[in-house]
Amino acid sequence: MGNGEIPIRIIDLQGDLEHSICSVFTDLGKRYNVSRFWGPSKLDAHPVWDRDYQKICFNGAPEGNRAILVGNLVNVI
């Protein structure tokens, strides 16, 4: 996207469609010091679903602070 944000998408395999449900800031050009032991690390969203496919969890850096975010998709799917 060019502004440091990446989309979180749902792929409909039956309909051959892609739906962007949100975008999350990751500041792709910046390296984050995760801890004093790990040193610099890049930030990828790596979305994962819960067992019921009602929530999605992903990494982001809203306001420049690294965070794990959870989205409720009950009304989306």
Gyration radius, in Å: 14 Å
What is the makeup of the main sheet? Answer: 3 strands, antiparallel
**How many separate helices?**
0
Uncertain parts: none
Strand content: over 45%
Secondary-structure element pattern, one letter each: EEEEEEE
Widest beta sheet: strand line-up = 5-6-7
* Span between termini: 24 Å
Averaged pLDDT, please?
79
Helix- and strand-based class? mainly beta
Shape category: globular
Helix content: under 10%
Task: Give the beta-strand count.
Answer: 7
Can you describe what's shown?
This protein is mainly beta. It contains no helices and seven strands. It has strands at 5-12, 17-25, 32-33, 40-41, 48-49, 55-60, 67-72. Strands 5-6-7 form a three-stranded antiparallel β-sheet, with no helix packed on it. The protein has a two-stranded antiparallel ribbon with strand order 1-2. Strand 6 and strand 7 form a beta hairpin. The two termini are 24 Å apart. The model has no long low-confidence stretch (mean pLDDT 79).
Summarize the structure.
This protein is mainly β and 77 residues long. The protein is built from no helices and 7 strands.
